[in-house]
Each structure stands twice: as structure tokens, then as C-alpha cells.
Amino acid sequence: MGYVLYSLTFLSLVLATALYLTRNRWTYLIPLPGYVYDRLPSSFSNDIESGLSSSDFDLFANLAAGDSRQGLDQRAKREVQKIMRNSRVGFDEARRIYIEEGFARNNIGADGKPKDPKFVSFS
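The structure assignment produced for this chain is given below.
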């Protein structure tokens, strides 16, 4: 029993050493994200610098007005940046995709009307 345990330990040590020494040959095969940690901005000025502003979604007005809030929602920023990176689209398009995905999760049509058959609207 001791011989088998010793052999397995030695074999795993040799295998780990071989993998470590040849890591440049096989690490590209492992799918890793393009980033490991992406610090999100926490103020409107940092949001603007990160590209999370456009002519349709103007954060310059908030900054000029001296808005004391912390900036945009952290979770939403992370999702919009992920959409921008994966789909290779601009901020406005990524924001539209994010909103439409939220509509779909909440059973709301792309036009903003609920898909619930029991919904009654008085207009």
C-alpha cells in the first residue's frame, strides 16, 4: 500500500513539474476571459472616462450640476461593459440590449407593453 501511495505521489509531482515547465505550449488552449479584474468607476466623471456616456445618455449634465450621487449602478455598468466587450458595440447599443434583456426577463415586450394576458390598461 505504501509503495502505491509513494508511486502516485511521485508521478503527480513529476506530472505537475512537466505541466509547469511546458505551460507556454498549452495554456492558450484554456479559455480565459480577456481580463481578470476590472475595477469599475464609482463617480460620474469616472463613468464618462470609461465610455459610459453618449449624446443620448449625457452624464456631462450630471457632472456640471454637481450631482452628489456615486455614479451609475455597479451591476448595470458591469453588464453593459460585458455586452460592449462581447458584442463589440457602442455604449448606446449595449444599453439598449441590456434594457431589452431586462424586459424579456420580466415578461415585457420590446415596445414596453407587458406580455401578460391578464394585463388590463385604461388609456
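Interim note for the steering committee: Helices lie at 2-21, 23-26, 44-49, 60-64, 74-87, 91-105. The two ends are 81 Å apart (CA to CA).
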